[in-house]
Amino acid sequence: MVMEICLEEGFRSAIVDFFIMQLKLASVFFTFQLGTKSHYYGRTILHGGSKYRPTGRGFVVFHAKFAENYIFYSRNHFVKGLDLLLLLIVYNGIYVVYGWLLVVCTVHIQSFMV
């Protein structure tokens, strides 16, 4: 994205836009959005998909409270994040005891199992 803005508007503008995006936590939003998409794609693949049936009513935009969003997204985002944190802690423990070679081999083997 920085290269695209750099070509369109110049290097200085691209750097400024990049820092503004970081201040607005755009990377956190992108990660959250990607987690949501991957969750629903996974559910569609696992349980079967459905077709879109237009009703002609259009999209409804409304304000949702933070508590409602937290309850709705906590299971498919925060629990996965806690699982990842737990795995990192376990890998760190293995790294301290056995060294980096075992960790690298374990991660390599598990990447083929997923």
TrEMBL record:
InterPro entries (alphabetical): Glyco_trans_48_dom
Keyword Transmembrane helix on entry: yes
The Glycosyl transferase domain, residue ranges: 1-111
Keywords carried by this UniProt record: Membrane, Transmembrane, Transmembrane helix
The keyword Membrane appears for this protein: yes
Pfam families: Glucan_synthase
Transmembrane spans: 84-109
Protein name from the UniProt record: Glycosyl transferase 48 domain-containing protein
Organism: Brassica cretica
